Amino acid sequence: MSWQLGPEDLDDLARGATLLGTGGGGDPHIGKLLVKAAMAVSGPITILDPQELADDAFVVPTAQMGAPTVVVERIPAGNEPEQALAALEKHLGRTADATMPIECGGINSMIPLLVAARTGLPVVDADGMGRAFPELHMETFSVYGVPGSPMAIADERGHSVLIDTGTDNRQMEWLARGITIRLGGVAHIAEYPMTGRQVKDTAVPNTITLALEVGRAIRRAREAHTDPIAELAATLSSTLYSHLRVLFEGKVVDVERRTTDGFAKGQARIQSAPDEPELVIRFQNENLVATLGDTVLAVVPDLICVLDAETAEPITTERLRYGQRVSVIGISTPAMMRTQEALDTFGPACFGLEHAFVPVESAVVELVETR
């Protein structure tokens, strides 16, 4: 059933999207401010349940791409994703009936809302990652047969580029990444144009609603002075993300981070006490694997989320700093993201990791119920 998203919902939505971004996806703060400003003119945004879409509806996801470290310093003008959508519509000779996120995490939870507020389009309550991933072909859309191109890329100077690689979504990513680097490290895109039927068959459903519920759960727990992580576990238990595990608690003792090839890459080390084993998190925009010695506690595509130890506010990879006291949690992904086809697209080997995928609920970790 469709519903209205108002400006009063954006803080909770941004918080939940930051958590679901598993460290990446770009900090949604700037996107949230742009959406609030647009909503002040346009009013609330219509959010559509994917099952309400007509099979022949024309849906075009919109997003930002690039390194999160660049986005912190390079603020969007606000019209770039709308320009990308217009360029793709012109190329295809068809006007979109709705837009939607390509990922439910980080700033890309906000970009389709910005497009909707500026154009009047509804936003589909679903996405193609169920979290955030660093590359454009790492989509459930791609896993289950939707071509990503033709796609359009736009920047704040009014430049736009069209890419058409047919069904080769990896080549689309490679070309789009190079163009984004040359546009300054960040750009806005419209891609994976598809039918309503394809949305229903390939998207992770109701993730805007999920992000909003997650953000509210953290806020309400803080207001009630209860355990936010226990509240999160209870909120997630009845969703497609049903398992939450506490992986580690401690202090960030080192962060190695570099912007290279259009990504923020590196690792963070977290220690619970001097001379105790360290948790190591490796990331490429998003957190990819958390290891304690030789033991893998969680690995992509499951979510690895770093939270402030006192407030449970999610911390993105570009904002990790020495000395932060944190809790690290793992969250299971939906079944459609754990099939062999999905793991061949965004499983550990796709990031050069030697670890096999082990569901987070099967790892030897502290259960949240024992907190």
**Which class of secondary structure composition applies to the elements?**
alpha+beta
Which topology of the largest domain does CATH recognise? CV3147-like fold
Give the CA-CA distance, first to last residue: 37 Å
What does the average pLDDT come to? 93
Number of strands: 19
Could you explain how this protein is built, in words?
By secondary structure, the chain is α+β, with helices and mostly antiparallel strands. The protein folds into 2 domains: 3-205, CV3147-like fold, CATH 3.40.1610; 241-370, CV3147-like (Beta Barrel), CATH 2.40.390.10. Helices cover 30% and strands 26% of the residues. It contains 11 helices and 19 strands. The protein has helices spanning 10-20, 29-42, 68-71, 80-92, 111-119, 140-143, 169-182, 196-202, 207-224, 228-236, 340-346; strands spanning 3-5, 45-48, 58-59, 62-66, 123-124, 126-127, 151-154, 160-163, 186-190, 194-195, 204-205, 244-260, 263-271, 278-284, 286-292, 295-299, 303-308, 325-331, 366-367. The strands form 5 sheets. Strands 12, 13, 14, 15, 16, 17, 18 and 19 form an 8-stranded antiparallel beta sheet that branches. A hairpin with a 5-residue loop joins strand 7 (151-154) and strand 8 (160-163). Helix 1 (10-20) packs across helix 9, helix 2 (29-42) runs parallel beside helix 5 and helix 9 packs antiparallel against helix 10. It is globular. The two termini are 37 Å apart. Mean pLDDT is 93; it is low at 365-371.
